[in-house]
Amino acid sequence: EAARAGDAPACAALLAQGVPADARADPGGYTALVAAVFNGDVATARVLASHPSVGKDATDSRGMTPLMWAAKNGDKEMALLLLYYGAQRWHRFGPNFLSASDLAHQGGFDDLAAMLEHDPEKKSICLMAWENNWAAVQALVQQGVSPNTKHRIRDSQGWHHEQYTPLIAACAAGHADLARRLLTLPGVDADLANRLGQTPLMYSAAVGSEELVLMLLKFGAKRNLVDIHKKRALDWCGGGGGGGGGG
User: According to the record, where are the ANK repeats (predicted)?
Assistant: First the structure.
């Protein structure tokens, strides 16, 4: 009842007194966390979700988890909160085995559905950039993945142990539109190099993309940086810098 009334302090006090965290109310069989999520009450949901005894995936009588209700309501802030505290995104319910992502799609909340479909624990933002999948890149960033993440990826040429950033991946693959979107994200470093000192501008020069080169320069990329082989972006034109580094 405290959760349904939006009384976050009362919820905290009751939990401190040892009240069963996942007690269900009739007739809907909802838990306190389900009630808070259903009402869009972020403050109360945070108090509940942050408590170790509260089941983040405890279902109501229909078999729906708090995350499913957040998805059904199109509540991205609530979904992010629940994911942060460990809610599982792939629970399914009902005769059609619907997931939270399915419910978001049904409601027309495609941005939220994309976020639920792309698990930072399983999806590489650098690989998604290489594959020109902006929806995935955006979804991962929304879940706290840094757009300056740096790690190795594997493509048709093999493993890139020199490590890519999302921007390097986009430039290496010639994806100008995705690179432009990345450059508009807060904090993205246009000159962030890989382990060999190779920058997005160098990769853009290697693939011969005037569009990418001009775009990076417009966003402040430095043209005279050198990699570990003392080569500048100009030396990379036409693939002269070596690029890649797979294997």
Answer: 62-88, 196-228
Q: What residues contact residue 222 under an 8 Å CB cut-off, 6+ apart?
A: 191, 199, 201
Residues 97 and 195 reside in one and the same domain? no
In a 10 Å sphere around its CB, with 0-12 CB exposed, 13-18 middle and 19+ buried, how is residue 220 labelled?
A: exposed
Of 26-30, 74-78, 99-103, 141-145, the one with minimum mean pLDDT is 26-30
pLDDT for the residue numbered 246: 40
Backbone angles phi, psi at 19, to 5 degrees: -60, 135
Burial label, 235 (beta-carbon count in 10 A; 0-12, 13-18, 19+): middle
Co-location of 189 and 107 in the same domain: no
- CATH number assigned to the domain comprising residue 183: 1.25.40.20
